[in-house]
Amino acid sequence: MENVLFIVEALVIAAALVLVAYLIEKLIKKKNQDSERVLSTRKVVVIGVFGALAAVLMLFEIPMPFAPSFYKLDLSELPILINAFAYGPVAGVMTELIKILLKLIMKPSSTAFVGELANFLVGVSFVLPASLIYLWKKNKKSALLACVAGTLIMTVFGTLLNAVYLLPTFAALYGMPLEAIIGMGTQINSKITDVTSFVIFAVAPLNLIKGFVVSLVTLLIYKPLSPILKGQRK
User: Fold this and answer.
1) Count of structural domains, the chain
2) pLDDT by residue (tens digit) across 109-146?
C-alpha cells in the first residue's frame, strides 16, 4: 500500500509540474507576443521521440567513484534540454515524464520507484528553469545563463530533496535502515558520516557534473539542430 501511495503521489506531482510549466509558458509567450501554441502536433511527436531517446540514454549509467553504486551519472537530460530549448518548458517537463515511463517499461525499477521519481524531479529542476530563462529571451547569452542557472538549481534542489525526502523514503520503502545507506557512503568517503555529509559529498558533485556536461553539449549542438527540430529551411 505504501508503494501504491508513493506512485500516486509521484503522478500527482508530475501533473502539477506540467500545469505550472504550462501557465508560466503562457505568461511568457503573452509578454513576448508569441502566438505559437504551447502544444502542437509536431511538438507532441518530437516530445515522444526525444522522450524515447532520453529513456535509452537513462539506461547507460556511469558509476561515480565518490558515490555509492545506486548513484550513477546518466546523460538523459541532454535530449530533454535540447527539446525544451526548441519547444518550451511544457515540452521539457513532458519529455521528462515520458522518459521515466518508457524507462520503466524497458527496465523495471530496482529502487522501489524512488530512483525514478528522483530522476524526474531533479531533471525537471534543471530543465524547467533553464527553458524558462531561454524562452524569456532567446540568444547565446541567455542560453548560457539558462544552463548555469539550471545546473545550480538542480544541484541545490537535488541535494535538499535527497536529504529531506528521497533518502528517508527509499529507506522506508526498501526496508533498509537509513544508517545502512549512509554506511555505504562512508565506505567510499570517510567524511560521509550522516545524511548532510552524504548529500554534500555524493549527491551534489554528481548533479554538478551532470549539469556541466549536459549544458556544454547542448550549447555546442543546439544552434545547428534548432532549424531541423522546428522544420525550418536555411
Assistant:
1) 1
2) 776 677 788 888 999 999 999 999 999 888 999 999 99
The pLDDT value recorded for residue 5 is 72
Do residues 113 and 106 touch, judged by C-beta distance below 8 A? no
Residue 121, in any domain of the structure: yes
Alpha carbons 16 and 31: distance in angstroms, whole number: 23
CATH number at residue 223: 1.10.1760.20
Which residues are within 8 A (CB) of 226 and not within 5 positions of it... i.e. 6 or more apart?
A: 85, 86, 232
Task: Report the pLDDT value the prediction gives residue 96, as an integer from 0 to 100.
Answer: 93
The per-residue pLDDT for range 60-83, each reduced to its tens digit, is: 989 999 998 888 899 999 999 999
Any domain includes 234: no
Q: Which three cell numbers stand for residue 176?
A: 533498509
Domain span including residue 185: 2-229
Predicted structure pTM score: 0.87
> Which pLDDT score is estimated for 3?
62
Bridge partners (DSSP) of residue 63 are 72
